[in-house]
Specification:
The structure holds 3 protein chains of 3 kinds. Chain B is mainly α. Chain B has 29 helices and 2 strands. Helices cover about 75% and strands about 0% of the residues of chain B. In chain B, helix 19 packs antiparallel against helix 20 and helix 22 runs parallel beside helix 25. Helix content of chain C is about 75%, strand content about 0%. The chains are: A mainly alpha, B mainly alpha, C mainly alpha. Chain B: InterPro entries: NADHpl_OxRdtase_5_subgr, ND/Mrp_TM, NU5C-like, Proton_antipo_N.
Chain lengths: ~325, ~700, ~140
Amino acid sequence: MTEAVPSYLSPTGQEIVFLLLGAVAVGSALLVVTTRQLVHAALWLVVCFGALAGGYLVLTAEFVAWVQVLIYVGAVVVLMLFGIMLTRAPIGRSADLDSGNRLLAALVAVATAAILVTVVIDGFRTAYTPLTPGRGAAKELGASVFATWVLPFEALSVLLLAALIGAIVLSRTDIPGGAPPEPDTAPRPPQNASPAAPRPHNASPAAPQAPQNASPAGPRPHNASPAAPQAPQNASPAGPRPHNASATAPQAPQDTSPTAPQAPQNASPPQSASPPQSTSSSVRPNGTSPPEQTVDDTPPDRAVDDTPPEQSGGH
Amino acid sequence: MTTFPLLAVLLPFIAACAGLLLSRLPHNNTRTSGRIDLPHDSTATSGRTSLPHDSTATSGRIDLPHDSTATSGRTSLPHDSTATSGRIDLPHDSTATSGRTSLPRNSTPTYGRDKAHTRAAWIAILPTAAAAILTIWLAWKPGLAYFSGTATPPTGQTYGTIVTGGLPISLTLQADALSSVIGVLVTLVALAVQVYSVGYLEDDPRYPSYSAFISLFTSAMLLVVYAGDLLVLYVGWEIMGLCSYLLIGHWWEDRGNSRAAVKAFLVTRLGDVGFLFGIFVLGTAAGSFRVSEVLARVPEMSAATLVTATMLLLAGVAGKSAQVPLHTWLPDAMAGPTPISALIHAATMVAAGIFIVARLFPAFAAARPTLDVLAVIAALGMLGAALAALAQDDLKRVLAYSTVSQLAYMAGGLAAGSDTAAVFHLLTHGAFKALLFLCAGAVIHHVGSNLMTQMGGLRRELPVTFVTMTIGFAALMGIPPASGFFSKDGVLLAMDGALSSGGLTDAAAFFLYGCALATVAVTGAYATRAWLRTFFGEARAVALPEPEPGTAHVVDVREAPRTMLVPVILLAAPALLLGFAGEPHVELGVAAVSVLLAALGAGAVYAFWRLDPVADPARLLGPLRAPCERAFYVDTLYAALFVRPVLALARLVVRTDDVVVDGAVRGSGKSARGLSGMLRLAQNGNVQLYVSGVLAGVLLIAVGAVVFT
Amino acid sequence: MHIVYPAVVSALLFSIGVYGVLARRNTILVLMSVELMLNAVNLNLVAFDVWLGDRLHSGQVLTLFVIVIAAAEVGLGLAIVLALFRNRRTVDIDHLRDLAEPPEEAPQTRPTRVRLQSTPEPAHPDHEHDGQGATVKRGGGPL
């Protein structure tokens, strides 16, 4: 490889093509990090990845190139676009895509580039290899993957599974412990519009029966209920233990269940502030107090309805 | 017999230890007594229905008495709440408001406290009495020999030697002629005071510790008296200072009392520093701290050494004996209970300074400049203090200045070269001044005030006290049959002799003698004034307000309790007759002059008093009266010269500490905070900034690794 | 083919990715920049695999793995971003400053303490005249 390094001044056609593709990749990458429109950034990313895939082709890594196109251009960028969409990013120009420490970032980036380029040029000035087509074909690579690298490959599948589950857990808010408790009351109202609002159902049943459940800021339904001596159903949850409550509960659910189904749709927007998901979700599996029992019927369906976008995001 | 000095010292010491230890015990008792005292209150207001001894004594609940006082509408709250702070003055309340109903003293149902007090009293009195018997035994022959001039070998023994690396300290206790005489004085006065205190401080919850302190004081004084080694003597000397401090501040609830205690402590300490260094100079010059060896080496010492040593010793003497530059603490020390004034500040402790000079008299006699200084100090002190005594309104302060004056007499006698005359006057003065103080205590106990303007006409109410105090005043004035006449005559005779013998420089001797004669007249004047204003004229008993803490109690008895009267009567005998003990040799000329002068002073005061019995005869001083009353502004001068500069310096130090030292500390803390605040700006929560920092660091390291390897 | 060409291209891409990670405010853009950096690494892996002529194709296989891992990472990252958005209504990294020290606690507490001390003292006599024990007590509490 070190023998007879051809001159840099007389590039071969492969080199010219690669350099052109590289210029495209670098240019589009620059646009990705400098453009003022989010969606454009994603699209420039597509260009960059495509150019890189071309570069892989030139470097005789055909399989990697097609995987690149499939996964990166096909999946990752689409995922990014979904993310942009779900975070309600503005379509079009937005002025504040760059943070304050832009200069410092540029400095660090230029320094990085300078050092890396210097080192690379210094280290590999004499490195040259002739390109022989077919070395990166699917057959060869497949043989290698499933013979030598089969164990990492299997491990990777487990990793993917874990990532899938993790993404689901992170994005679904109706899983116990999955979503963080709501810190603020402010973000709630708009959340109803977003697909990630399965919560309100828990709160809703309490609303029609006992307004005092919603009024005290006491987040736990148990705490709120003692304030309502007139409602026997509510008095039972005063004992926070689900077992106690369940003894008195059975009559109540039948009474309240007819009203409950309508309640979610009607009442969910205003009540969403009061009950945090963590407590409600922790109560729900026990199925104790009358309000929550009615909840039990609805949320699973709703949750299934809501989650698909995020699950697709998982993979 | 040789162990008697040790026993005499140890007995009161053990008594003091036992008393102090046991004084912790009766706290329950004092509290119960406080509880039991309270019903007096209610009974006084409710017209003395019945003394609820049994009910409250057995009830044992503190709520009940509180209720009673609360309903009686009298705000005796401070007393209630000060069950821990001592002095429960409730009997005052009852008597003051109920118009001196005479609650019989014996019926005071202070069973619990009585028990503790009785125990403490026995613990205090018995060892003191035993020590008194021992000292009398010791003094039987040598004591008389002292005044007749025949020397007897000291009895005593050495109990070991402390090797210090330099001069060894020999633990010697011995009784020679001088020591045994003074020892008798100390123990007898202490015994009288102990007995007297039983009655005087009957209501005081801190009586046990008080009596223990007196025992400790007695022990220390006996240690001073019997010490055969200067450093051992110094130990006793300092313990006395401590006891003085503790006892002056006995009623420390009043800030003035504790201030007086601190003042006494500091002023005497000032003199003690000189005293200690005087001991060092004398000891190193003599090569030993043993008194006998020091005195034996005196002829070999250089004059400079002797003068230095005696001058330094003189500082201690002036401090302890309240001589002129350092006398200011003694009048203030009257803040203590009256028996303490009698014991410490009249009869014994202040006499320790005179005793030291007498003890080391050969050394002083060989240092003539010191004697001159002593003469001048004594002359100034005796006349000035006598004039101050003439102008005071506080009976105890009169006696205090009188003490300063009489001590100056002794110092003058010593300066004149007659230690026997001085010691004789010390003895008689100890007797009659203790008598006077104890009588004054009885008077104060009766009247409830120290001020003579509130006394008067007491000779009918207090006949015993009147008679005894008359004896005391007679002795103080030097009226012939009383002891003071003989001793004062001896001192004057010595001063007269000093004019011609040449022990002093002529000017000093003349000054001393003149002042002494003048003082005789002034002494007669102030003694007569105090006597007249206390016992004659109209009774000025007024409805007394709540007495200050620190003054004595008001009791409604015709006469003081027996425990107070017995010591007074017993002390009156020596005060009257002690003059005949020491083979009196009366020179008719001097005696006639002194009696004449005393009569002159007394007559002048009497004449002024006759003119207007209500007014103060002190007005005969004319324009001098104000300076005399303020004791010639010495305190003011000291305050201006020393106290204020020191306070200013202290404030400066405090401010320096606050601004500079603390400022440096605070400044460093603040600067650290400021710097960290600047660093904290970087920690603004922006993750990208952090990552930028990390990457920049990595790059730097990479560049460094490339460049420097 | 000179290996320097892909190496330099990948170095530039990586630096651009660094810039994006450090300078972009939107979290999704940061994720994109991370993808850029990963791709730079991939390019390097492929290039050096070609240069070394590895029979096991370790470079290219590793590239595949990296691509897979990058996909998983993007999925998880987007899930996190969405959770974030749901809770904070923003995906701007600038606004996520929970790592910062709570700003200036001391100056905030000090004035309040001083105020607590100063106000009850003048208020004391009035309250005592009124005989309102509760307010006096409340005023005395911080003292």
